[in-house]
Design goal:
extended; mainly alpha; 2 domains; 107 residues; 79% helix
């Protein structure tokens, strides 16, 4: 293995470890968590999901190609399954499988 590759992997591992342990170092022991951190922990997951939806659907053209049918169908499956089963992994996996099937086999 190349020395640069090993160095790159080592740096990635070190940064990941530091980022994982940093909250415990900052907020560990008996320190009280600030209110803005508690607020962000409740709001950020929804904001990130919203940004991912916008990012995934930003280049969909409803006037060309498949007219956005695979994207709309997969999104509907994700939302429907999540409302029905409340299982994020199941709903995202099913939507991904449906989308890949539609773009590979149908459109």
């Amino acid at each position: 293995m190349d020395l640069r590759a090993v160095t790159l992997i080592a740096v990635c591992v070190a940064v990941t470890i530091v980022l994982r342990f940093l909250p415990f170092v900052i907020f560990g022991r008996k320190k009280e968590i600030p209110g803005y951190i508690t607020y962000l922990s409740g709001v950020l997951p929804y904001a990130i999901m919203g940004m991912l939806v916008v990012y995934c659907l930003k280049n969909v053209s409803f006037f060309a190609g498949s007219h956005g049918i695979p994207e709309i169908a997969a999104s509907a499956v994700v939302v429907g399954l999540h409302v029905w089963k409340r299982n994020t992994l199941l709903s995202i996996a099913a939507g991904t499988v449906l989308y890949m099937f539609l773009i590979q086999a149908v459109f």
